[in-house]
From TrEMBL:
Gene3D superfamilies hit by this protein: 2.40.30.160, 3.30.70.1630, Aminomethyltransferase beta-barrel domains
All residue ranges annotated as the GCVT N-terminal domain in the record: 41-152
Alphabetized Pfam families for the sequence: GCV_T
Protein name, entry field: Folate-binding protein YgfZ
Binding site for substrate: 180
InterPro entries named among the record's database cross-references: GCVT_N, YgfZ/GCV_T_CS, YgfZ/GcvT
Record-level GO BP terms: iron-sulfur cluster assembly
PANTHER family membership: TRANSFERASE CAF17, MITOCHONDRIAL-RELATED
Top-level taxon: Bacteria
Transmembrane segments: none
Annotated source species: Candidatus Accumulibacter proximus
Amino acid sequence: MNLNWQEFLGAAGARIDGELVTDFGDAAGELANACDATLVSPLTHLGLIEVAGPDAAAFLHNQLTSDVKHLASEMAQHSAWCSAKGRMLASFLLFRNGPDYRLQLSADLLPPIRQRLQMFVLRSKVKITDLSGTQQVVGLAGPQAETALHSARLPVPPTPLSTAAFAEGGVIRLDGRRFEIVVSLAAAPGLWQRLQPHARPVGTPVWHWLDIQAGVPLITEGTKEQFVPQMANFEQLGAVSFHKGCYPGQEIVARTQYLGKVKRHLYRAHSASPMAAGQAIYSEVNAEQPCGMVVNAAPAPAGGHDALVVVQESFVGVGVLQLAAAGGSPIEVEPVMPAFATS
């Protein structure tokens, strides 16, 4: 986290643990408001990479799972970068900044992903830059989110995954009630001050819970190279194109889709015990080997903890699923349908 931004948030009441804003002094109250209040959150768990240059679109199109070449200037898309074995190295929210492209990803993956991307540039006319020190991401959610944007003199993108630019940055509409604002570091404090009268400041755990409710997984250090995109519903998020040319892992991703060999699927889970990304999930039916993994987790407003998990389908509804070890805390799961789906 940029030191200036950290100092500003601290002065605004944020409690910070490492790179994450845990809360603004009332973690329980913030979480209780997650369902029905209008909220603003510094998304310090996210990082930004910019890919610029004449070959930027072609370069990313040949690396990522989504159809980058057809990404309109005022749209965003979910995407992923896979290993040769078709396992996701990172997940992205990809959007345009004029002729350039920006990749939003988990901050803990940014340095290795940027370095690995650089290895594939070769003769392409592309420049890859870490923007985390110059750009900040702020989340805005809730029933009055559009009103808050208007009051802060910001544009309101009309449809999910549409974008709108303003002088110091841009707004991305995630779904019906959630937005991200990408803003220059210099303008971030002023933006925060304009939004705060219309939205309650909350910490990162609340935003994680909102992501879980929306059914949008985020690949992190704890889950990299664990899932083929379809295991995490990425094809339902529009993050996988089955009509474009080759990219790393494309053959495996396509074969998995057309042969119907996806045996693990994304579920929303609840447990009385804390859950964390990368934790194994076991079934009492087969205690010897894990049958799933936690993707993302957060405290739940109603108590306990919620998560997105990938679980082998044959073990769902057959015996009790358990966290971290055979005999661990029980987990209840339900299928996930994203807040929106694209073909």
